[in-house]
Amino acid sequence: MGFNTIRGIQINVNHCKAAHSGVFQVARDLELDFIAIQDPYLFNGEPPKSNFGCKTFSSRDKRAITYILNKNLNVFYKFNTTHTVAVELHFNNMLFNIFNCYFPPHDNIEDLIGELRDFNFYNSSNLLVGDFNCQSRSWGYDSDNFRGRKLTEFIAASNLHICNITEYGPTFQSTTNVGFPDLTLLSLPVKGAFKTLKKKPKKFAKKFSFWNEDLRISRNKVNRLFKTYIKHKAEGSILEIIQSSGNAYRKERAIYENLLLSTKRKAWESFCLNHNERFGFLFNLVFNRGSSENFIGVNPNNDPNNTIEDKINYLMDNFFPSPSSEDNLDYTPIIGHVEPMVLEIIEIVINALIG
């Protein structure tokens, strides 16, 4: 049986039994295909089940639960981690992965994101939903925090796109706080996108690219060191081994991030320096190569004989005027009374700094 769309809902029920049960009722009324719940209500360590049947998948800590309600969908368990569960849907002759995540607000964000680093979001269609507890302007907050910056870097490096519409309002609201911790992220296979680009005319082909073999080698090395670090922590290795593997991972990750930034910058600089659009609009305007009459809507002194050069100079002088004598402002500070320095006060300040 084929489907044209998949419909679902994502919600953090904050351990509330009524909210958790209410989601089932809403899903049934709207005939949804799946539910992704974070921070669910648990009874004896297990989430409740719907009374109309479904398949249930959960993260290891049971704080991210995915219900597949549509019995006609072919769904397969893909993997789970401490804070994430992933399922694979066979949908409309394609594979579609759904990731459900709950990132606790006080856990290490780099370790949380690390649970997803081994998955290649470039080669498949993926929906990543969850309560990430990260703050960034990219999805509605007024400022960024460290967690938000790290998650933004991961999103940019993983072929993920933010689907949130901030105009619809916050995703979390209480009597004391308002925020946008819940995200919906989507990725499509890059291979298919490249095929689409090749079908377009040459002038629309993608020209800017930065990925290279050195980046791939460095990224793979970071992934290997991260797996080693997580393995030592999971096995309860001695503290020195855990610290050593963690330091090696963080050092190599810093090298990779610096290499990524410098490579992107060099690639962009090269692209800009080598970009040569001959006979573009400005070229045709200045050298009168255009096929139609060019018109600039200014006319200094209402002179009908003004050239395009005269008009451009007039515009430039108005927007970027030459310095005048009025611009040379000399500032002479007025120094008021200054209290003399007292030795006792200096000693107190120095002792406080030393302490």
TrEMBL record:
GO molecular function: catalytic activity
Organism this protein belongs to: Araneus ventricosus
UniProt cross-references to Pfam families, sorted A to Z: Exo_endo_phos_2
Name listed for the protein in its UniProt record: Endonuclease/exonuclease/phosphatase domain-containing protein
Domain Endonuclease/exonuclease/phosphatase: 97-192
Family matches, as SUPFAM superfamilies: DNase I-like
Highest taxon in the source lineage: Eukaryota
